[in-house]
Amino acid sequence: MIKVVLFGSGNLATHLFRSFKKSSNVDVVQMYARKIASLSNFDVHRTDNLELIENADVYIICVSDDAISNLSGQLKFQNKLVVHTSGSLSVEKLNNKNRKGVFYPLQSFSKNKEVNFLTVPVCVEAQNEEDLKLLKQLAGSISENVYEINSDQRKSLHLAAVFVNNFVNHMYKIGNDICSENKIPFRILDSIIKETAKKITNLAPEEAQTGPARRNDKQTIKRHLSQLKNKNQKKIYKILTKSIQKTYGRKEL
Amino acid sequence: MIKVVLFGSGNLATHLFRSFKKSSNVDVVQMYARKIASLSNFDVHRTDNLELIENADVYIICVSDDAISNLSGQLKFQNKLVVHTSGSLSVEKLNNKNRKGVFYPLQSFSKNKEVNFLTVPVCVEAQNEEDLKLLKQLAGSISENVYEINSDQRKSLHLAAVFVNNFVNHMYKIGNDICSENKIPFRILDSIIKETAKKITNLAPEEAQTGPARRNDKQTIKRHLSQLKNKNQKKIYKILTKSIQKTYGRKEL
């Protein structure tokens, strides 16, 4: 049984708590938050007092990036395994008085959306073999996809995730805007959106690329640009078309 | 039984042929291609001679956009229902000697990837009620999602699809490049890619947006920009971050 204390009460803390609860290998012995009221929905020992943190094998900090370093410095114990859960912060941001590690689940969590943690990759990092083994065990108790990823790699991974999640979602937003302006139900695009994501499981993105930019179909590109009245959308269309053309060795627009 | 002749031998013609074959309401009586050899894999009457086109209820032209107008002009019969399958061409591009229509399945088809046509939306357009009814029946025999979409709407839909398919796939490509440069298996991103697409079924893209640009986290944005050595990637990161910030009323970078 791996004993865990969770710090935080946000999306990630919530999803981790629920997933650990389902595992027979993990015991969440306590949760901490600055305001104890924010923990009222969690059926577990709760505290807002750092003096009263209970004994555990792993202390998991699930607070905002800005607050991690400070919180790890305020802990009253020493030489325990303390991990943060941030994609973009180095393990070094944790205070030196404890053994340090990272437990980073790569997913975009929304509060009211249930997540199947089994498919969420968890990236772990530690500073000695034993801690690494423990984190792998802990991650393996909730996820089928556990990766050892160092701090530099993790930063790059987080950046890659901005492209494939944040920016992709913004493409959906623009698609949605174009549909509403033309009284087309956005739902028509559901199927192609899902298929585009699914394709990538079997094909490299390079092989999966289709469309006017890929085949350098200048007539269609020109027509699309004349259709776009919104300057911002036009700019994005141009720069991405150019980038695709470059990728596949075509001449610029 | 709706009798159909298919013109073309590419991806779309192949997928349509297979789907029509499975339906008990449709009979593909013949396929035409300029080179009869390209039809050798189709178990159906084949011809490369426009003089020998058989009688049918609907003639479906699945050739490249550039060739549609010309081919429709070369047909030897009159006052039949001839449709094209292009997302970006107006129904008017078809020759006037026949009744005109559009049968546009909105999906990005790859040759060797089986497609479940049931979930592919088919957008139909015709110039009289009877033809429209027939096209809806035909579309309904292979798909659960049939929409009546006029030529202007279809052009916008095609443009929206460029954003949610072509440009999204390019985001995957950049994510993939960042991963390989840092020796990270791209597979780690599979789960977030699928989840991002799935979310959109229940949430508006505006509600689903997360990330540093959305919450105007300038520190992370700055760090990401310093990580990006590739000028093109940097430019894309900047313009999309700016666009997200604008969308949610934040100040510019």
Properties at a glance:
homodimer, 253 residues, alpha/beta, Rossmann fold, N-(1-d-carboxylethyl)-l-norvaline Dehydrogenase, domain 2, eight-stranded mixed beta sheet, 8 strands, P5C_Rdtase_cat_N (chains A, B), DUF2520 domain-containing protein (chains A, B), NAD(P)-bd_dom_sf (chains A, B), DUF2520 (chains A, B)
Write a structural description:
Two copies of one chain form a homodimer. By secondary structure, the first copy, chain A, is of the alpha/beta class. Chain A folds into two domains: 2-149, Rossmann fold; 154-247, N-(1-d-carboxylethyl)-l-norvaline Dehydrogenase, domain 2, CATH 1.10.1040. In chain A, 42% of the residues lie in helices and 15% in strands. Chain A contains eight helices and eight strands. An eight-stranded mixed β-sheet of chain A has the order 3-2-1-4-5-6-7-8, with helices on both faces. In chain A, strand 7, helix 3 and strand 8 (146-148) form a beta-alpha-beta unit. Chain A is elongated and about 70 Å long. The mean pLDDT of chain A is 94. At the A-B interface, helix 4, helix 5, helix 6, helix 7 and helix 8 of A face helix 4, helix 5, helix 6, helix 7 and helix 8 of B.
